[in-house]
Amino acid sequence: MDLKRAVAKEAAKLIKDGSVVGLGSGSTAALFIEELAKRMENEDIAIFGVPTSYEAKLLASHYGIPIVSIEDYDVDIAVDGADEVRKKDLALIKGGGGCHTWEKIVDYNAKEFVVIVDESKVKDSLSFPVPVEVIPHSYRVVMKRLKELGGESVIRLGERKRGPVITDNGNFILDVNIKVENAEELEEKINNIPGVVENGIFSRVDKVLVGTKKGVKALKK
Ligand SMILES: O=C[C@H](O)[C@H](O)[C@H](O)COP(=O)(O)O
């Protein structure tokens, strides 16, 4: 079985009847949403989904998973993908698809936050450019401040949409090449820059499930 599918299926087994589940974004989380929907149908369990993006919301609707809002409900467990995972401390980079702001709101407020990846994403050090969502008007000054922190930024441009990518929240994204050593400290420093909405360093995760050729393995801090 495909490694992403295998890890998504394993994560779907963690979900208990009646839970409020944070539904992650990206291709791996999409498989989790699909596997969860299968369980709901085959085992007749009730699940309420809290999406982390419009992508997740549309998928959940497609599979018939009832959606509730984080404005009204606490999340029992969030399952989400990642672009890179650092082996030694499970620091993550997320936001390759531009969804990290909404993801962090849901994932960090869940009682349990589980990440699902295939083994190609588990690294000794982080090198994926850090996505930083910014208020459009602030991009130039934020880029200057990121440079002071040692980061070189580019504005993320659309593929079919011309000009900057616009997030689900109506903002721009900067992709920042920056050395991540102390993940928690850098996550906080970037978020302290005026104009920054949220960055894609996630220093807090409870468990990472990894799809490997030898089966699904759990990494814990
Ligand atoms: O913004 C996107 C999210 O952070 C995704 O979870 C991340 O990019 C991983 O996506 P994929 O599973 O498609 O590699």
TrEMBL record:
Its EC number is 5.3.1.6. Pathway: Carbohydrate degradation; pentose phosphate pathway; D-ribose 5-phosphate from D-ribulose 5-phosphate (non-oxidative stage): step 1/1. Keywords: Isomerase. One of its GO terms (molecular function) is ribose-5-phosphate isomerase activity. It catalyses: aldehydo-D-ribose 5-phosphate = D-ribulose 5-phosphate. The keyword Transport does not apply. It comes from the Archaea. Substrate binds at residues 25-28, 80-83, 94-97, 121. Homotetramer. Catalyzes the reversible conversion of ribose-5-phosphate to ribulose 5-phosphate. This is Ribose-5-phosphate isomerase A. It comes from Methanocaldococcus infernus (strain DSM 11812 / JCM 15783 / ME).
